[in-house]
Structure formats: structure tokens, C-alpha cells
């Protein structure tokens, strides 16, 4: 079970967030080496994941020869992007751009919400989700807002209510036309009309 959980977390980083280079690290490769030598059947999932990472490493090594030195260090997201796109080619993002949720981040939020609803590991749903998110820079307020936007019901977080469009009846339309003709020359026709409607509207 522990191995499965470990692979699941690493899979989120490498596949869901499309950042396999974060796992290009010598100590991790040494672990992979031991896994490849293992004959334990429970290690099949680990072997499959290790093969995936090593293939990604080989592909990137064809484009970036310095990657063999890079495996000596753990990397940040920016450094991972530089490995893939070239050094100095990664532009710093503005604050507003950082706040944008990517599709894979929304998918991660949906998955975590589903996991919480299934297992309810702790009382505070948002705190649990934030602890398990890859992006640890999100504020609690931002996570709650996105949960509501995605109509995810988690714990006591309720989705945004869907606004209902109330149609006007023929009588109300006729009344509006009459009031408009009467007050269209007023300084504030909208206030005049709203204050005289038989059915209050906002």
C-alpha cells in the first residue's frame, strides 16, 4: 500500500502536472536501479513508473547534455522548465498569471475533492486538499473559490448557486414599454421605471 501511495504522488508530479524532470535526481535513480533488480511482484507498479521516468530522462538528454550534471540537484519548477525549454528561456510570470488555474490543476482539485468525499480523512476538507496539492502557493480563499467555481461539494463547501433567469410576462413587457415611453426623457429613467413596476425587479 505504501508503494502504491508513493507512486501515486510521484505520478501526479510527472504525468498530471507534466513535470517529469523534477524527478531527474541521482538518489532517485539509484532507487530505481534497486527496483529494476527486484523480483518482488509488488514492485511491478514501481518498475513501470521508473521505466517511464527513465525514458523521459533519455529523451531530454538528447536535447540537453547538461542534464547529467543536473541530476545531482533537486530542482524547482522553474529549473524543471529550463531543463526542458532551455536555460534563460523561462520568463517570470506576473502575479495574475500565477493565479490562473491550469487544466491539470483543476483536474487535480476534482480528484482530491473526490478522494476527500470518499475517505473523509480529516474534518477540515480545504486544509486536507491544500496539504495534498502539488502547488503549495495557493491560499485557502483561492482554493475555496475554485471549488465553488467547479461546483464541487466538499465538506461544508457549497458550489456557487446557479442564477435563475426569470422571464417577463407579456403584461410586464407591455408595462415596461409604457413606463419607458413615459420616463425616457427623465434624468434617471431606470430608477423611475424600477420604482413603478407592479412586480419588483432588481
From TrEMBL:
<dbReference type="GO" id="GO:0043111">
    <property type="term" value="P:replication fork arrest"/>
</dbReference>
<dbReference type="GO" id="GO:0006281">
    <property type="term" value="P:DNA repair"/>
</dbReference>
<dbReference type="GO" id="GO:0003677">
    <property type="term" value="F:DNA binding"/>
</dbReference>
<dbReference type="GO" id="GO:0000076">
    <property type="term" value="P:DNA replication checkpoint signaling"/>
</dbReference>
<dbReference type="Pfam" id="PF26019">
    <property type="entry name" value="HTH_TIMELESS"/>
</dbReference>
<dbReference type="GO" id="GO:0009649">
    <property type="term" value="P:entrainment of circadian clock"/>
</dbReference>
<dbReference type="InterPro" id="IPR044998">
    <property type="entry name" value="Timeless"/>
</dbReference>
<dbReference type="GO" id="GO:0031298">
    <property type="term" value="C:replication fork protection complex"/>
</dbReference>
<protein>
    <submittedName>
        <fullName>Uncharacterized protein</fullName>
    </submittedName>
</protein>
Amino acid at each position: 500500500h505504501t508503494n502504491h501511495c508513493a507512486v501515486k504522488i510521484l505520478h501526479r508530479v510527472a504525468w498530471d502536472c507534466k513535470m517529469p524532470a523534477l524527478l531527474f535526481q541521482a538518489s532517485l535513480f539509484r532507487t530505481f536501479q534497486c527496483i529494476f533488480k527486484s523480483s518482488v511482484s509488488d514492485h511491478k507498479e514501481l518498475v513501470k513508473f521508473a521505466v517511464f521516468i527513465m525514458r523521459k530522462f533519455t529523451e531530454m538528454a538528447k536535447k540537453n547534455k547538461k542534464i547529467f550534471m543536473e541530476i545531482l540537484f533537486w530542482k524547482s519548477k522553474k529549473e524543471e522548465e529550463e531543463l526542458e525549454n532551455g536555460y534563460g528561456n523561462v520568463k517570470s510570470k506576473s502575479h495574475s498569471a500565477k493565479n490562473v488555474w491550469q487544466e491539470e490543476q483543476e483536474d487535480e482539485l476534482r480528484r482530491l475533492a473526490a478522494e476527500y468525499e470518499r475517505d473523509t480523512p480529516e474534518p477540515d476538507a480545504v486544509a486536507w486538499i491544500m496539504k495534498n496539492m502539488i502547488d503549495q502557493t495557493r491560499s485557502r480563499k483561492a482554493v475555496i473559490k475554485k471549488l465553488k467555481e467547479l461546483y464541487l461539494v466538499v465538506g461544508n463547501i457549497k458550489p456557487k448557486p446557479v442564477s435563475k433567469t426569470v422571464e417577463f410576462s407579456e403584461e410586464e413587457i407591455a408595462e415596461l414599454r409604457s413606463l419607458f415611453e413615459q420616463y425616457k426623457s427623465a434624468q434617471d429613467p431606470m430608477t423611475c421605471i424600477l420604482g413603478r413596476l407592479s412586480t419588483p425587479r432588481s
